[in-house]
Every structure is written in C-alpha cells, then in structure tokens.
Design a protein that fits this description.
about 35% strand; about 150 residues; two-stranded antiparallel sheet; 7 strands; globular; five-stranded mixed sheet; alpha/beta
Length: about 150
C-alpha cells in the first residue's frame, strides 16, 4: 500500500512468512502496532490461524443511529495449553482507549472529533464483545502497553 504523504501511520501489506497460518488474501496493516502484532502472530508457534480484518461486526452508531460495519483488526486461533481459543483483537494507541481530555488550548473541532471517535469506538467495542461471546470467542483490545511497544 502506498504511504500517503500526509499519513501519520505506518501502513502497508504484510507478506506472512507462514502463509499456511494466515486466513485470507491480504494482511493490511494500518499502523506500526498492527505490523508488530502481525509479525508476532505469524511467528508464534502457539498461533494456529490468524487473519486481518476478516470479521465484520454490525454496530449502531451513536452519531446517526444507523447500522454500520465494523471490521475488527484481527482474528486469532491460539493454543493455550491443551485448549484452543478464538479471539477478536482490536489494536489501538492507548490514548484512543480512554475518554478524550479537553483542554482550553484545543480547537473546538479537535475536541468534537475526539469525542465523536470515542463514542463510535465505544459502540464498536461493545458490539464486538457481544458478537464474540455469541460466537464462542473473546474480544480483546490491545494497546502499545499490552504489546510492550515503547
């Protein structure tokens, strides 16, 4: 994927070293955190299968009240001892997983954007948790802190 000159994030296509473990055609990463996770999943012997944006969860947006589609970042099938577990995994920077802080120095549009994104993400994550539970999975939200990225 060509990197946009205005992009703040590392983006591209990851070519799995173990393609037999990858579900789908393309592993598109939209941040360096996702790339880190792809490499981990691809090289981890406990990971049986993994995918990128292959699970679509419907959610109701608090902004317009309509149903939208949420493409969860990753699906992972992992061996944990004698048990095989399924996870839906969303990867976000830590500061996007906490309510936005408002300061007097911020533009009103910046504050509004952060609040809208926070509200949408809360709806997405609630829908993903419910969807995952219904399908025998667990939804996990990972940040750079969980991934041990500094």
């Amino acid at each position: 994927m060509k990197k946009d000159k205005y992009s703040y994030y590392t983006q591209g296509i990851y070519k799995p070293l173990h393609p037999e473990k990858f579900i789908g055609k393309t592993a598109t990463y939209r941040s360096s955190f996702e790339l880190f996770f792809f490499r981990w999943a691809d090289n981890n012997p406990r990971i049986i299968r993994w995918a990128s944006e292959n699970t679509i969860v419907p959610y109701i947006s608090p902004i317009d009240g309509k149903v939208h589609r949420y493409f969860v970042d990753n699906y992972v099938l992992i061996r944990e001892g004698n048990i095989v577990k399924k996870y839906l995994i969303e990867i976000k920077p830590y500061n996007q997983t906490i309510p936005p802080k408002v300061s007097k120095r911020q533009k009103k549009t910046t504050i509004l954007y952060a609040q809208v994104e926070w509200a949408k993400n809360q709806s997405k994550w609630l829908a993903a948790r419910e969807w995952a539970t219904k399908h025998g999975m667990e939804f996990i939200l990972l940040t750079e802190k969980n991934l041990n990225i500094k």
